[in-house]
Write a structure and sequence with these properties.
The protein is an all-alpha fold. It has 4 helices and no strands. Helices cover 67% and strands 0% of the residues.
Length: 109
């Protein structure tokens, strides 16, 4: 896990932002929470496997593909839902970046 990263706070922040976006109805929020939780787990796994936690470059394209694949698998989503998952993961990545910046967890060097 990234040092200083609180997955519970991140999930609450990201789900809140996704709700504010207007793209999800209230009845979809339990699914969104599950999806964001799976995305956080997948993102952390990607960073550990690719060496990001040890200072390697975070390749957003590779991370996106990895996270989408892992979330589809974790949610047991059918192929038709993959596009919806990809759109949600894109939002996750944007809002997670905002969370990292707000909490001074991003090192641009």
């Amino acid at each position: 896990m990234m040092e200083g990263y609180d997955a519970t706070k991140a999930q609450a922040f990201i789900v809140g932002k996704m709700k504010e976006s207007g793209r999800y109805r209230d009845e979809e929020l339990p699914f969104v929470e599950k999806l964001v939780g799976a995305a956080i787990e997948a993102d952390q796994a990607f960073m550990a496997q690719s060496g990001v936690l040890d200072g390697e470059y975070y390749d957003e394209d590779d991370a996106f593909e990895y996270i989408v694949d892992q979330v589809v698998e974790a949610l047991d989503a059918d192929e038709g839902a993959e596009l919806d998952v990809a759109e949600a993961v894109e939002l996750y990545m944007d809002y997670n970046d905002a969370f990292l910046q707000e909490n001074d967890l991003v090192d641009w060097e």
